[in-house]
Specification:
Blueprint: E1 6-9, E2 14-18, E3 24-29, E4 35-46, E5 51-60, E6 63-75, E7 78-83, H1 90-93, E8 106-111, E9 123-128, E10 148-153, E11 160-166, E12 180-192, E13 197-204, E14 212-219, E15 225-230, E16 244-251, H2 259-283
Antiparallel strand pairs: 1-2, 1-8, 2-3, 3-4, 4-5, 5-6, 6-7, 7-8, 9-10, 9-16, 10-11, 11-12, 12-13, 13-14, 14-15, 15-16
Pfam families: DUF7043 (PF23070)
Protein name: (salmon louse) hypothetical protein
Domain DUF7043: 5-102
């Protein structure tokens, strides 16, 4: 955490400032405009992990108390903060009455110098499920429920993900002329959670302000990936009860789904064929060619 002094939650609703000495935090809520000053009372590293449990004194205005916090270092640029209820005495803060490692809220923070990393998936995938992730859909566009959604991962770049969903021509309910709608993302840090669950930070690759997401997924024995997407935080323990969808491998990286790329591949193939024909005519003797009457 000391690698950076400024951190922002992936939903852009909270900020964390660490002072130069590393003893005091200022936690800001950008939605309400409130802030809290957090001072370290005691610190206990968690054995076998890159995590630390802190009993902190938290002061917000005239209100103060002791809060149990657990910081998980996922990467130089990604941390998670899990926090409990406020207690009156330091000895109360981390008791099961005030803190639960499974259910206490978690915030996921990124630094301004986040870096891209190779995506854990490579190829073409089909996304299906009763609750398709609405965040993948471009704003101002919608399809019927029978739209088909694809994911290209690691194809145009090892850290790049493209989500495309295809609307049936009769169901496009927008001003878009194309039936293909896409969203672009970049992969960042990935880490294991528990019981083979994995978490992956994604960011939109559109210009300007970055929007971060957390993809939590589980690779099943049949090859199907069960996943959940969250704009607020990466879960510390598995999935939420709702919002899961399936990701199924459909093949390796080939040409893109859109017609423009298909036309490009066709043109390249035709150019190659036109180049081969003259070479063939030069190499094959005249008498050996077949003449059609």
């Amino acid at each position: 955490m000391s690698h950076h002094h400024e951190w922002f939650s992936i939903n852009q609703e909270a900020g964390l400032h660490l002072n130069k000495k590393g003893h005091t935090l200022k936690l800001r809520n950008f939605t309400s405009g409130s802030s809290s000053v957090v001072t370290c009372h005691s610190m206990d590293p968690i054995s076998g992990s890159n995590s630390v449990q802190i009993i902190s004194h938290v002061k917000a205005g005239c209100d103060s108390g002791y809060v149990c916090m657990v910081f998980h270092g996922r990467d130089r640029h990604v941390i998670q903060m899990q926090y409990g209820e406020k207690g009156r005495h330091p000895s109360e803060a981390c008791s099961h009455y005030h803190f639960d490692s499974k259910y206490s809220p978690t915030l996921t923070f990124v630094s301004g110098l986040h870096n891209r990393q190779p995506c854990p998936f490579s190829g073409l995938y089909t996304i299906s499920g009763e609750l398709l992730p609405q965040i993948f859909r471009a704003e101002g566009t919608s399809c019927r429920e029978d739209s088909i959604m694809f994911m290209y991962s690691g194809c145009s770049g090892s850290s790049h993900v493209r989500i495309e969903y295809r609307c049936p021509k009769s169901s496009v309910m927008s001003q878009e002329n194309s039936k293909y709608i896409s969203s672009e993302f970049n992969c960042h840090v990935q880490w294991p959670i528990q019981d083979n669950y994995q978490a992956l930070i994604l960011s939109s690759s559109d210009g300007g302000k970055k929007d971060f997401l957390c993809l939590t997924y589980l690779e099943n024995s049949d090859g199907v990936i069960t996943a959940s997407l969250d704009q607020n935080a990466c879960l510390v323990n598995g999935f939420k009860d709702i919002g899961t969808f399936n990701v199924t491998s459909s093949g390796p990286c080939l040409e893109a789904l859109t017609g423009s790329n298909t036309s490009k591949s066709y043109s390249q193939g035709l150019s190659g064929l036109l180049l081969i024909i003259p070479i063939y005519l030069l190499l094959v003797p005249l008498k050996s060619r077949v003449t059609l009457e």
